[in-house]
Amino acid sequence: MPGPARPFRFGVNMLDFGSGPQFRQRCRRAEEQGYDIVHVPDHLGMCAPFPALVAAAEVTERPRLGTFVLNAGFWNPALLARETATLDQLSGGRFELGLGAGYVKAEHDAAGLPFASPGGRVDHLERVVDEVTRLLADPGHAPRPVQEPLPLLIGGNGDRVLRLAARTAAVVAFTGAQQAPGQPEGTMRLITPAELEQRTAALGAFAEGRAEPPELNFLIQRVVPATGLRAALEELRPYGPAMSDEELLEHPALLAGTPQQMAERLRAHRERFGLSYFTVMDSAMDDFAPVIDQLHGG
User: Fold this and answer.
1) Alpha carbon 189 to chain centroid distance?
2) CA-based angle 295:218:61, to the nearest 5?
3) Alpha-carbon distance 151 to 69, whole Å?
4) How does residue 1 score in pLDDT terms, banded at 50, 70 and 90?
5) Three-class SS state of 159
6) Cβ neighbourhood burial of 138 (10 Å; 0-12, 13-18, 19+)
């Protein structure tokens, strides 16, 4: 949904927890490198998001803190509102709540939680969003968040999720992959750049009339120096076997080249798709940091 160009924002998604001191040091390094937000995902087998973000808040001053994204199926709205308000208080008003419908059945099975149909998972996401929003807006709710309203990020690509995001979210996080048709649950394929363009246009239509349209986020899956381009293409090809090399190189999930070339590619993504907020995996923190230097304030 291209429009007036937003300033760039950059996040890092902390998948590799390590020890407590190691995690805190990586959060400090992210701040030093210019990242605007420290993200933590919500998957079994990884660190719990809220304690990790409290630890990040203790050792940083500038970056915001976000869940990227919570699986709504894991959460009761009243308990989530308590966690959210507490973290916003402890971080001095730096928290951004990210939510999605969830997609990994094995995690629900391991937690002993039902795994609904896609429509049922979106139904639950809507209930959680509406109830948490209501609770946090209630002057009588304790604890109180610092931010009113607290920024909400919603992740997904489907029409129902985008309609919900157009109504409620400050940020919409588009996913570069979706369930591969006819394949086992959890088998993902990259959507094409043309499909992504259609999805951002759909959000624009759903959000028409908003005083300020939502900010658009995208998770970059691979950041590759110019010398590793061929290997990166081959690594991604199973996820987009029908895509040409050109389509893969144009895909926001893959960023390759020199820092200057990567910066130009992100400018092109902002122009074409309206994306201005990019998140990278923590394994790419150091490779991506020079790109931040190229684009901050642009």
Assistant:
1) 18
2) 60
3) 13
4) very low
5) helix
6) exposed
